[in-house]
Amino acid sequence: FSDARKTEAARQAIATLNEYVKRGQIKINVYYFGNTVSSTISGAGSHATHGVPIQDHIAKTRPNNVIIVTDGDISDCHSVTTVPGAVWMLFYESRSRNVMEHIKGKKSNKYYDIEY
Prior knowledge:
By secondary structure, the chain is of the alpha/beta class. The protein has helices spanning 4-22, 51-61, 97-102, and strands spanning 32-33, 37-38, 66-71, 81-83, 86-92, 103-105, 108-114.
């Protein structure tokens, strides 16, 4: 995020999930995205968010569930990507209808508006 408040709020969300990891209740892999997807924040490219690399990454890694933390600037998804379980999306400022319509969970889809 280009806004430090969004970045801090996203870090807090990840820290909350890591509490479940520590208790052995879930396993997570964190990836950062801009115009690419990377396991490091510096490898994620520009601040402009592109949905197609996220969809490609999901297709390649085949996760059971996906949590996406973003703001509403994703607009380039054109086909539907589906995961076997759930998709949760945490939005800062505004929702991206485009990503909501194109990344789906077979079992559940939840959308949250995060205030920061």
